[in-house]
Amino acid sequence: MEPSYRLIQPQANRSFVFKLEPFGLTTRWHYHPEIELIYFMEGKTSAVIGEGFQEFEEGDLVLLGANFPHVLQESKEFIRQHPEIAPFGLIVQFTDTFLGNDFILKPELKPIQTLLSKAKRGLKFHKTSIEKGE
């Protein structure tokens, strides 16, 4: 099955999409040109990221590159154990040009360019790195 294209609707008066809400666990496997940063704040989800299967829980941080297929799904085990909790978190979606066409090319942003390049196939940050601020 091929992933479907998903149109990300821009938010009024914003150059990127910012959501702090329960995850949409009924969406289909999809891709979009926006880069996506997901911080899992509560609950546990299953996910198909690219061609792999993973589980995410509180404290996980994931950066998905542009046009990288993915879908978050409910974790059957978690829902069975905690039916009262809807997994939620922070999602930020942006293009690499959201600050202007040449902004990302500035020499000071070379580490960000490298990070976005690594995220083309999905990048999960370890909790210890997040806690240390690395």
Short summary:
The protein has 134 residues and is an alpha+beta fold.
Describe this structure as you would to a colleague.
Strand 5 and strand 6 form a beta hairpin. This protein is globular. It starts with a strand and ends with a helix. The chain is an alpha+beta fold and 134 residues long. The relative contact order is 0.23. The mean pLDDT is 89. It has a single domain, classed as Jelly Rolls (Sandwich). The longest helix has 9 residues.
Would you tell me the structural class of the helices and strands?
alpha+beta
* Broad CATH class: Mainly Beta
Strand count, sense and barrel status of the largest sheet are: 5 strands, antiparallel
What is the domain total for the residues? 1
Task: Count up the helices.
Answer: 3
What fold name stands as the CATH topology?
Answer: Jelly Rolls
Please state how the strands of the largest beta sheet are arranged side by side: 2-9-4-7-10
CATH homologous superfamily - what is it? Jelly Rolls
What is the level-2 CATH architecture name? Sandwich
Residues in helices, as a percent range? 10-25%
Average pLDDT: 89
Low-confidence stretches: none
Shape field? globular
What fraction strand?
A: 35-45%
Radius of gyration: 15 Å
Series of secondary-structure elements, N-terminal to C-terminal: EEEEEEEEHEHEH
